[in-house]
Fold this sequence. Notes:
The complex is a heterodimer of chains A (375) and B (357).
Chain A: H1 10-23, E1 30-36, H2 37-45, E2 56-63, H3 65-68, H4 71-81, E3 86-90, H5 104-109, E4 113-116, H6 120-129, E5 134-141, H7 146-159, E6 164-170, H8 173-182, E7 190-194, H9 195-201, H10 207-211, E8 217-220, H11 224-239, E9 245-247, H12 259-268, E10 269-271, E11 274-277, E12 281-284, E13 288-290, H13 299-302, H14 318-322, H15 354-361, H16 366-372
Parallel strand pairs in A: 1-2, 1-7, 3-4, 3-5, 5-6, 7-8, 8-9
Antiparallel strand pairs in A: 10-13, 11-12
Helix pairs in contact in A: 1-11, 2-15, 7-12
Chain B: H1 4-16, H2 35-49, E1 61-65, E2 68-77, E3 83-84, E4 87-88, H3 89-102, E5 107-118, H4 123-140, E6 143-152, E7 160-169, E8 186-189, H5 195-203, H6 221-230, E9 235-240, H7 245-257, E10 260-264, H8 272-281, E11 294-298, H9 303-311, E12 320-326, E13 333-336, E14 342-344
Parallel strand pairs in B: 5-6, 10-13
Antiparallel strand pairs in B: 1-2, 2-7, 3-4, 5-7, 8-11, 8-12, 9-11, 10-12, 13-14
Amino acid sequence: MRFVDEYRDGGRARALAARIAALCEPGRHYKFMEVCGGHTHTIYRHGLEDLLPRQVELVHGPGCPVCVIPMGRIDDAVAIAREPGVIMTSFGDLMRVPGGAGSFLDAKARGADVRMVYSPLDALRIARENPGRRVVFMAIGFETTAPSTAVTVLRAAAEGVANFSVFCNHVTIIPAIKAILDSPDLRLDGFLGPGHVSTVIGCRPYGFIARDHGRPLVCAGFEPLDVLQSVHMLLRQLAEGRCEVENQYARVVPWEGNRRALEAIGRTMEPRPHFEWRGLGFISHSALRLREEYAAHDAERIFDLPGVRVADPKACQCGEVLKGAIKPWECKVFGTACTPETPIGTCMVSSEGACAAYYNYGRFTRERVREATRA
Amino acid sequence: MTTEQQVLDRIERARRRAPRVREEHITLAHGAGGKATQTLVEDVFVGAFGNPALEPLDDGAVLELGTSRMVMTTDSYVVSPVFFPGGDIGDLAVNGTVNDLAVSGARPLYLSAGFILEEGFPVEDLRRVTASMSAAALRAGVAIVTGDTKVVQRGKGDGCYVTTTGVGVLDRPAVLGAAHVRPGDAILVSGPVGDHGVTVMLARGELDLAADLVSDTAPLHTLAAALLDALPGEVRMLRDATRGGTATVLNEVARGAGVAMIVHESAVPVRPAVTGACELLGIDPLYVACEGRFVAFVAGDRAETALAALRSHPQGQEAALIGRVEAAPSGLVLLKTAFGGTRIIDLLVGDPLPRIC
């Protein structure tokens, strides 16, 4: 199929893998973080690690929006969903994320009206079709999804859809990368930059990573050949002694970003003083809330929220996984108490979560499989 | 220091424990055909009804009646919308049950039909449903010999639900089942996967997507018979890839037979429109339901004969050999990706799809 097959071509992959192997210095171990959960998903879904030399290690980063949402915010959203007359809408990924008092799916089974949508505009349509109900969109995601929330809010305001509001949980990627760079237990050789986020913010904001922290970053696409080529570009920078921001995903990512999308975000949203990230704690200016002008569409102002901070379950090591400090299987509860059907931590819920990706796609040792399939 | 392999072994032990339903309420995941469905069936239903005919949990129960052997099966249909490109709930209800008999190796004979109708459902629509049931029954050579009707209040049902029960007779000596699958066997699919599921998803009109696709709903009894006749005693088992799709069939058999499956992604036939819709929706076509395809496990050295037998039948022209059964790693289904890597295909968790059967 066009625009799919050419980015998954096994022959090209093998050729690129050989060039990657040739660039590796003997005896050196390379540790690259893919910031975005979409990359984590691609890496596992296509078995990309089978094509990389052992000395190249991919570390999964904090760029899964579902994974970093703290339990208290889920409880707030469930509390809204249980208010009389409310239709709660959200992306499918979020339905099973557990809060302190259960998930959206649990709330739905107990009678709350929670609906899955593919776009916030679908939520706005539901609001128009149900004028007697209060329709709330649980907004989540990095700069990738914030513009569509912004556009929906602008449209709701322009059309006067008074029964529509947004529970805003948008976060921003740069503060999270800063938190990773400041964490002492990680020695990374470079970053695969988040391609979708970069379609909005462009490549310029990553400059400090190369300049101040001496780490190369390559903005990477989401097909497996994109990821492999980006690894190759990082290794080439290291081999040539360069340290820069490069754009592998130029077919989609403009260097300067998408000005109209940024404007829409800027018109409707402003940074919060601080926001709690699961596993990473409170990070200043790392999330967005609706501006005062759009208070009429801000669920946080319309509803009385519990707003209680819920500590992560003690056994859960999502924070360490999100920072790339441990591998999913190194978590104490991985795969036994915490599984995709009964997740304790968020990393086990979203298809972009490192634990879910490893559990669903990578739960075997590659050596053993090579033996089994040699014939 | 625990090694990765020790962790994996611990996980496999945990996965083999008798499943327990931990939720307090039924969620949609319990009906999605994946892990939650399996847990519900094994804990609640087998727990309550357990007996030797039920416990293999195959598509139909094999029953000895005097000197003859019968197969009995039942299925309920709640598809929404009731009418979709290529079919409707009526032919789905006949074909689905006929197929459960066919993949058990039985010659389908008789069906029952139970209707749960919602107050306000148009009689004209019911006539359309029954007309397509009648046509499907004629095509499959079965008679609908008994039935039942209930009407529920408006809002308490979704138009029309149909339950069919089927009985057939086993003419051939061999009994098919997961227990017969062994390392070295070949894995085939009888045609492109995912047509039905994607067609119904698009027919719901919620996704603003359109594609030139029709459901694959069809009776499989003559295709199954063609394969069984070409390889007497060497077909290990057949299963129609309905709810949960091909991936679910492979997982159930891997687990039931204590074997591994190695599937080659590039060998699995998927229509471009199905691939496209699945890419957009973030769904793997291997998990998407078919209503007129089966997965066949046959003796490894007869794979080519099996493929030829399927392809010489009008319904099997796009059949394909997709992989092999291996001894280890037991219970796992592994996919060799077109890209050149390896990954697991696990049982589906949760419910990413609307009701499609």
